[in-house]
Amino acid sequence: MRRLLSAALCLLLFTTACSYYNTSSRDRSLRGTVAIPLMSNESSQAGLELEMTEMLRDAIEQDGLLDIIPNNFTADFLLEATITEYEESISFSTLAGSAEEYRLTMTLRTSFQVQVVGRDDLPESWERSIRAQATFYVEGSEGGEFLTREDAETQVREQVVEDILNGIFGEW
Q: Which stretches of the chain score pLDDT less than 50?
């Protein structure tokens, strides 16, 4: 029961942190065009690069500050990412030795390149490693109905996108 309450509290804190980001930390002055080529995928999770690229493009489109264009050479900004890790590991085992809780981890190498020359009002180019983690319970366990693998996948993917957007528009 204690682990269940901890999991619910983590989910609440994650939701609160994302809502804070969405309402308060954006640099509203950044405008222009951005190219977002298909992410590279060095993980064993086939197709993840397609899903993550689409999620990132959708989030930037919804934000409305940058226009996405297909040409890397004419865009004001270039956003590239490589998925380097996508794995699950045992986070908690029972006394009998069976896994009860897992941790899902996704790591990316990202870069945001400013391609416009001669403007002092633009942010600096950057390269960063982004790591997102979420836990989930084994199906059929006490907490399995509250934090499923699908929930953890959603949390990790949304956290990665938010971290990239924070890198572009917000404060790290």
A: 1-26, 172
